[in-house]
Amino acid sequence: MVSSIGLAVILAAILYVCATETHNETHKCEDILVHDKPHKKHIVSKGLNRPYQLAFDKHEHRIFFSHNIGSDNEDEFEIGYIEKNQMLPKTVASVINGFAIAVDNNDDVIYYGGSEGIYKENLKGMEAVNDTKKVHEVVKGHNIWDMFYKHALYFITYPTQHLYKLTSKNEIERQKHVHEEIYQFAIDGHDDTFITNETGLFLIKNETKERILYKGPKVFRAIEINNKGTAYFSGKNGIYVANKTHHALDLVVKVKNIFGLAFDNDDNIIYSNPHAIVKLLPGKCD
Ligand SMILES: *[C@@H]1O[C@H](CO)[C@@H](O)[C@H](O)[C@H]1NC(C)=O
Ligand SMILES: *[C@@H]1O[C@H](CO)[C@@H](O)[C@H](O)[C@H]1NC(C)=O
Ligand SMILES: *[C@@H]1O[C@H](CO)[C@@H](O)[C@H](O)[C@H]1NC(C)=O
Ligand SMILES: *[C@@H]1O[C@H](CO)[C@@H](O)[C@H](O)[C@H]1NC(C)=O
Ligand SMILES: *[C@@H]1O[C@H](CO)[C@@H](O)[C@H](O)[C@H]1NC(C)=O
Q1: Contact indicator for 164, 148 with CB cutoff of 8 Å
Q2: Pocket test for ligand 2, best of 127, 132, 134, 135 (most atoms within 8 A of CB)
Q3: Which of 78, 114, 120, 200 lies 20 to 30 Å from 22 when distance is taken between CA atoms?
Q4: 256 touches 237 (CB < 8 A)
Q5: Model pLDDT, residue 74
Q6: pLDDT (tens digit, 0 to 9) for every residue of the chain, 286 residues total?
Q7: Is the CB of 129 under 6 A from ligand 2?
Q8: Closest CA to 194 of 144, 151, 229, 228
Q9: What is the pLDDT of residue 126?
Q10: Cβ < 6 Å from ligand 4: which residues?
Q11: Which residues have CB under 8 Å from 195's CB, separation 6+?
Q12: Environment class of 256 (CB within 10 Å of its CB; exposed 0-12, middle 13-18, buried 19+)
């Protein structure tokens, strides 16, 4: 996915950051524009291997993610999280090959998707008990590709790329109205649905069937809905927002090689790159 030039730039950037950090830990602020306004990059955690699938716990301010714990050419995933004001991740050990994450912040419940199914955990008092006792299996025998939560848990299976919903009775229901083989799925604040497939990004307006192709990037690693109900997309060259009047994606932040995307309670963007989780805060570096 990454060109060799892109990779060289990333490597150079990593070497540069490491060098300046060992030299002077406090001197590493970097400016960046978000919606044309100056922001600074705050490193939440680093030294990770491809942190993916970010999710924010709005009550305890924890950031969940999955990351690669295998060798570089053999992917093996694990779910971890970072507590507020800490840098070192903790592990959700009980999920086999845990990759996908979705959080239901109204009920304080988090879902973990792995190669064997989906597991559910209550976010309250999470750290108090050994996690294997509190993580419950809710879906069995499906390899989970991606998940999304709005009023219910939606998940995409691998390798079929079909969309399912977990009902309130814990039954799984194929979502036949999305007949495509999809990579991502999200419902925004207007109850409009976004899907992505090999062709690109499509909008399906609430209660309609028409697929509206969006102009702009075609490949994404994440779709995330912010607290206001607006859909954001992480593409190859940056973070984009859906422009629903023009059916196009508008660039919000120019930053390369983003893996995951999330929002904190104030709608500050949290993203991950191949090695770190970064938060973008308004203001300039001193
Ligand atoms: C690191 O940078 C800070 C802020 O620029 C400065 O006050 C401090 O003296 C520096 N420390 C070292 C060890 O260079
Ligand atoms: C958690 O509990 C499981 C099963 O009771 C046990 O096998 C495992 O060693 C425990 N882990 C920790 C970190 O205590
Ligand atoms: C979506 O459509 C349904 C049925 O027409 C309607 O009840 C609901 O309010 C709509 N959602 C939004 C956010 O407009
Ligand atoms: C992706 O979905 C769109 C909308 O349904 C469809 O037209 C297109 O053929 C699909 N692409 C592939 C590669 O299946
Ligand atoms: C949508 O795009 C058009 C054309 O680029 C622009 O004029 C408009 O301000 C955008 N809308 C939003 C909500 O950003």
Answers
A1: no
A2: 132
A3: 78
A4: yes
A5: 75
A6: 444 444 444 444 444 444 444 444 455 678 899 999 999 999 999 999 999 999 999 999 999 999 999 877 777 899 999 999 999 999 987 888 999 999 999 999 999 999 999 999 999 877 655 666 688 999 999 999 999 999 999 999 999 999 999 999 999 999 999 999 999 999 999 999 999 999 999 999 999 999 999 999 999 999 999 999 999 999 989 999 999 999 999 999 999 999 999 999 999 999 999 999 999 999 988 7
A7: no
A8: 229
A9: 74
A10: 180, 197-199, 202, 211
A11: 178, 180, 182, 184, 185, 201, 202, 204, 211
A12: middle
Identify which of 215, 177, 174, 171 has the alpha carbon closest to the alpha carbon of residue 193: 177
Number of folded domains in the chain? Answer: 1
The ligand that comes nearest to the alpha carbon of residue 240 is: 5
Pocket test for ligand 1, best of 20, 25, 27, 30 (most atoms within 8 A of CB): 27
Domain that holds residue 255: 4-282
**Distance from the CA of 179 to the center of ligand 3, in angstroms?**
21
pTM of the model: 0.84
Encoding tokens for residue 89?
A: 């991740």
From the CA of 91, which ligand is nearest? 2
CA 206 / ligand 3 centre spacing (Å): 6
